[in-house]
Specification:
It is built from 20 helices and six strands. The chain is mainly α. It folds into three domains: 291 residues, Up-down Bundle (Ferritin); 164 residues, Ferritin (Up-down Bundle); 124 residues, no CATH class. The strands form three sheets. The protein has a two-stranded antiparallel ribbon. A two-stranded antiparallel ribbon has the order 3-4. A hairpin with a 6-residue loop joins strand 5 and strand 6. Helix 5 packs antiparallel against helix 10, helix 7 runs antiparallel to helix 9 and helix 16 packs antiparallel against helix 19.
């Protein structure tokens, strides 16, 4: 069977396209021949599987670029500009995460296996827009991101800008080892055809109407920068779509709409307001300005760092083997301390992926809806919480690693390795899945205790590692119970004031809030009830008897508000209704304290110890401009 549609030439043939094609970055209309006949559903499953890998790979590469941005500028104006680079890259990575979750939901919709794999080598990336490479932010890396995300046709882009984009495309090709950049939009274009055409594409019977409970929702994973009602706000929304309905026609329309939004937001052919392409293009311009001002704002992190020792070549071997060994040697984290942090990063990355996969393979509510445990997390709710915990952990470990030497005295620092585990498959039985998580948490505890916090180690009193250990020990009893087929232990649940404080901390997913800090953390009940927000009491008291009342309390109104300017948390989904009800009932019960009273409600996660600059960086910093 032969299908014909627009797809980059490099995907289909071994020979590179002609120079004329490269110059204009045209997409070739060529037949895509399958070795065996594939029906539309199988083809859709194949392309969604590829799309998932592409989204995962882009997310990781954008995150690595973001982590490479320095945070040590002393000039206020320069610090703001550099921080903006990090924030925009991080937001782009979030949006790729949203795409990844939506693709998983589409796989559920047609009854296909989920896929969180991705390419892990720069040598194998034939279906990717560019070769997979963990690398610091640079003009070259940004050129690749721009070219992969930009519209295929000039359209409304003015001639001067278009010529500059063609020049950037040449930079991108050189940065991609001489291979042209490919548009992932072709994958989505074909998927839109398969889902949208009932005659030649997916049939009604290919859609499953009973998979909504397995899907991830925007309320689970969403993020919105809250830019108000301007045209750009939707483009910067972390888009996670679900597919619910009792009729295939409805599901088909929803799927096509989701695919079109993903394509328009980032990788597709259409030119949209504030698309990924436009944001990367602006990043490129801002990068150039900072470089021209001789500001040093990127850590000298390694390319493709790895904790895996490079291969040893014995005897005669092919040239390719020597090249691979050289690449591995260049990225090998030879510094033992940095390598241990890298091992920790890989364990937490494995946990994150396992929690995501597990979450999408079980059904059920995320919170207890009624009774004495109202608002408490269910096992599925814990997987959601722990996934965000690991995102936070990865960020903090990465920010530590970019300051640690890769090797001794070579002028390069380590970066987060993002190495995939030996398998992402989870067992078929639910109890065994929890046992997998338990094993990885135990491995992390052992690594921290025996390697990172060994006697005499600079990390022996690291506050982040202490918090991580405390959190992991709290997880152990829960994981052990679930792995034994039991319920979440009673002692693992919170109540009264500590439960309210935890609800607020979990509402922002444990991340630090720059605007007003996590003001509910690190205080006791008495301090909490005295809090004010915008000169208004956080908890309202009746005028007649001075009793606390939920009605009219600033806390309740903000938790229940859907306004982008008045809601709490501002950029994230609303707190679940069961938790809103618990907060109301707690206030009306006069905000009871825990026993014994006076305890801290919730502790906000601490940062790793400040890492002094390596000696060569101290010398370079004294020579810089812009500090």
């Amino acid at each position: 069977m032969t299908k014909t549609y627009e797809i980059p030439l490099e995907v289909l043939v071994c020979q590179p396209p002609s120079e004329a094609a490269i110059a204009t970055l045209e997409l070739a209309k060529l037949p895509l021949s399958f070795e065996i006949e594939r029906n539309p559903r199988d083809e859709a499953a194949l392309l969604l599987t590829v799309a998932a890998e592409v989204e995962h790979a882009l997310m990781v590469q954008y995150l690595y670029a973001a982590y490479s941005v320095r945070d040590d500028q002393t000039n206020h104006e320069t610090r703001g500009r550099v921080r903006s680079l990090y924030q925009r890259l991080a937001q782009l990575a979030r949006e790729e995460m949203g795409h990844l979750m939506t693709v998983q939901n589409l796989l559920h919709l047609i009854g296909a296996p989920l896929n969180f794999e991705r390419e892990d080598s720069p040598f194998e990336s034939k279906l990717y827009p560019f070769r997979f490479k963990l690398e610091p932010l640079s003009k070259q890396s940004l050129a690749k991101y721009i070219t992969a995300e930009r519209p295929a046709e000039q359209g409304d882009i003015d001639d001067k800008t278009w010529q500059r984009l063609l020049y950037i495309a040449k930079i991108a090709r050189r940065a991609n080892d001489g291979r042209p950049i490919q548009h992932v939009g072709a994958i989505y274009e074909r998927l839109i055809e398969l889902f949208g055409n009932a005659e030649e594409g997916l049939k009604d019977q290919d859609f499953h109407t009973d998979r909504i409970d397995l899907q991830g929702t925007w309320d689970d994973w969403g993020y919105d920068e809250g830019l108000g009602s301007n045209d750009k706000s939707e483009s910067r929304r972390v888009y996670v779509d679900t597919f619910e309905g009792s009729h295939p026609t409805t599901l088909r329309k929803e799927a096509v709409k989701a695919l079109e939004i993903i394509a328009e937001q980032g990788e597709g052919y259409g030119s949209t307001v504030d698309s990924h392409f436009e944001r990367f293009f602006q990043l490129y311009k801002d990068f150039e300005k900072l470089k021209n001002e001789r500001v040093e704002f990127v850590w000298p992190v390694a390319t493709n760092p790895s904790t895996k020792p490079p291969r040893t070549i014995l005897g005669k071997s092919k040239l390719e083997e020597y090249i691979r060994a050289a690449f591995e040697e260049r990225g090998y984290i030879a510094n033992p301390r940095a390598r241990n942090w890298g091992h920790l990063f890989n364990l937490r990355y494995r946990l994150l992926l396992a929690f995501l996969i597990h979450f999408l393979r079980i059904t059920g509510r995320r919170y207890v809806s009624s009774g004495p445990d109202k608002g408490d997390r269910t096992p599925r709710g814990l997987l959601l919480l722990w996934a965000f915990d690991e995102m936070r952990h990865l960020k903090k470990i990465a920010q530590k690693m970019v300051r640690l030497p890769l090797k001794l005295y070579n002028g390069v620092t380590a970066g987060p390795p993002f190495q995939l585990p030996y398998t992402l498959d989870l067992p078929d039985l639910e109890r065994d899945r929890w046992r997998v998580h338990l094993d990885v948490v135990k491995a992390s505890l052992t690594l921290v205790e025996k390697a990172l916090q060994d006697d005499g180690s600079p990390d022996q009193k690291d506050p982040f590692l202490e918090d991580l250990q405390r959190s992991d020990r709290g997880r152990l009893s829960i994981l052990e119970a679930l792995a034994a087929g039991q319920s979440i232990p009673t002692h693992a649940r919170t109540e009264s004031f500590q439960k309210v404080a935890r609800i607020l901390e979990e509402a922002v997913r444990g991340f630090s809030i720059d605007a007003h800090s996590n003001f509910w953390a690190g205080i006791n009940r008495e301090q909490f009830v005295q809090l004010h927000m915008f000169n208004r009491p956080f908890l309202r008291r009746n005028e007649d008897d001075c009793n606390l009342t939920a009605e009219g309390s600033e806390l309740v109104s903000r938790l229940e508000s859907s306004s982008k300017t008045g809601k709490m948390p501002r950029y994230r989904p609303l707190v679940d209704s069961s938790r809103q009800e618990f907060v109301r009932e707690w206030i009306d019960a006069q905000a009871p304290d825990n026993e014994p009273p006076g305890q801290i409600g919730v502790h906000h996660g601490r940062e790793p110890n400040f890492e002094p600059l390596p000696s060569w960086e101290q010398f370079r910093k004294s020579e810089r401009v812009g500090y």
